[in-house]
Amino acid sequence: MKVSRYNFHVPSPKEAGVHFLYNSLHDNRIVLQDGDVTVDTLFSKIKEHRPLNPKESLVAKDLKEMGYIVDEDVDEKRVFRQWLNQRVTNQNEILTVTILTTLACNLRCTYCYEKEKLGKSRMSPEILQQCVDWIKTRIRTMNPRKVNIIFFGGEPLINMEAIRNFSKEVYPFCLENKVEYSAGMATNGIFLTPKISDELKDYGFDWIKITFDGDRCEHDKKRIYKGGRGTFDKIFSNLEDISGKLKILLGGNFDKENVESFHSLVERISKSKFKNDIIATNFKPIMPEMVEAKGELKGIASSCVHCTFQDFEIRKMMELRETTRKFDLHPTDPINTGPCEYYRRNAVTIGIDGKLYKCIAFLGINGTEIGDTAHQEFNETGEAMLNATAEHEHPMCEDCSFNPICAGGCRADAYNTTGDFKEISCQRHYFNKTLTEELPKEYYDAAEWAEQMGGV
Ligand code: SF4
Ligand code: SF4
To answer: Which one in 51, 186, 261, 405 has a CA-CA gap of 20 to 30 Å to 350?
Structure first.
């Protein structure tokens, strides 16, 4: 027997003898309390191959079932590589396609990475049809259990016609082929009405991603109309008007100026009509424009978790997660964050010109296209991007226990800073800090909440 190389052991900051264990390969988390068996002694004995007493053997048996202890001859690195290859890179159960049908936007958020590219560009009907055909062919050959479609922009609702035409073909096609279908969009919420929401539901939409950049006063400095007017009231009242119709992924971008106002935003939302529509909340820092970028990216404005954060940002994210937990707005899991869609063969982003990319952060960057909607096969770049992770491990990651939840981190960030997507964007600092603080926090917050509920 040996201790898993993917274990993390966090002693409780509040109670002596209480231990939080996490295993990154199985995403298991448990709490153990010293008693007849002492956790430190048990693990030391296993590491040193000393005999266990009967009580320790029983605990070890349970820990083995959960992956914290493994048989001596198990090559865990190999198990991880196989998992990454089969269950992430080459998994064919879920097809995820992000589509940009327009680059146009009705807002001019002060930090928007797309502001230089904004125009009236829309996907042409011909490319849209190619996009539909590409997805249908992919479904026929891949036979997935589920298809996820994500509309992104610009503001997707500016090109509602494209959404209609796309959905009228792809949604029924999935139903006919007994493939589960889910569609959603990242929208600024300005054009959301009950009528549009009903229409979206008819087209198989079940969620929208909405972003606030702090409470009213701060939000209205950043998320503005072309003329400079704030958008908070409009977005908020639209969400109240459509409450109960679509699930909401709540996002928010913070910096040193607006971060404190997120607490009152959360409180305000917790009293709103759409509170129960929120299924996940993720507030993250506004990423600075990367002007020094070697890969010529102008900034990563992805809706994903991008983890090359500063200490201030990590601390604030933790605080905001605590607030969202307190108001029951379902903060996203900060620990098991990946591997992201970059690492999946069956997750692509389609630009308005029909070119395919690994994720939206690469969009429009010459030389990072992985193919186009006229062809099912990826080009050499696409294969090289996937092989860089599926078959070759970066030397730094090889012995890292975070590998199953990171796999090298954000490759768009790596490409941005080094010009090479085989490089990694190391998130060790973020993971270390988050894991040590969040594991106990999650547990004690839940215990406090249960106590409050019991006392009602
Ligand atoms: S490569 Fe980076 S930006 Fe792209 S999906 Fe992964 S974490 Fe997000
Ligand atoms: S990028 Fe850093 S944190 Fe991620 S697996 Fe590699 S060494 Fe570990």
So the answer is: 405
